[in-house]
Amino acid sequence: MSEPRSVLVTGANRGIGRAIAERFVAAGDKVATIYRTGELPEGVLGVVGDVRDTASIDAAFTAIEAAHGPVEVLVANAGVTRDQLLLRMTDEDFEQVLDVNVTGSFRCVRRASKGMIRLRRGRIIFISSVVGLYGSPGQVNYAASKSALVGMARSITRELGGRGITANVVAPGFVDTAMTAELPAERQAAYRAAIPAGRFAQPDEVAGVVLFLASEDAAYVNGAVIPVDGGLGMGH
What we know:
This protein has 236 residues and is an alpha/beta fold. It has a single domain (6-224), classed as Rossmann fold (3-Layer(aba) Sandwich). The chain is 45% helix and 16% strand. The protein is built from 8 helices and 7 strands, in the order βαββαβαβααβαααβ. A 7-stranded parallel sheet has the order 3-2-1-4-5-6-7, with helices on both faces. Helix 1 (15-26) packs across helix 8 and helix 2 packs parallel to helix 3. The longest helix has 29 residues, at 91-119.
């Protein structure tokens, strides 16, 4: 059994983030989250914070480091949607999604990288989406935010790759979560028809890939985009 690591998963109160946090807890790691509301999985240290606010993120990291030590694995998972057709999408719709999904991830990574550089090791894993490279009508803002994470991860890889730090992207397709459950039944059926696997993913199937990227086995995987989408986005 390897030493427990200090792991931070943002937005671990629901969906994919929750499944990821549960897997790290099961693996024996010290798991914390920065979240806004909701119940957390057992064994997860919850610090209330807002990824839209740098001071809030700094304070949350300080609390987590005091409890668990410097963050060795960061999973940037917190995200929002504000779907709307292009012509009806407001500046606020666009800016809010970018602020949480892109700038929020940046704020967390910037803070985590300080400790990782000192440790000369670290794992940064961004949770993107098949939509980031595949595109989706009504999601110009969300798709832009999720594709931006690829450029961020690859730039971090070039900057920090020589210090034992990896930055990778997991791009889930449609996953059985509360978010997809809200889609109309006919839309869900259309999406399933487009997925070669013929079904949505379980959150745990995404979590397993994240766990691999955080492991020693993935030490030489850097700047990669790993699709977990049942074949939906092939070639993207």
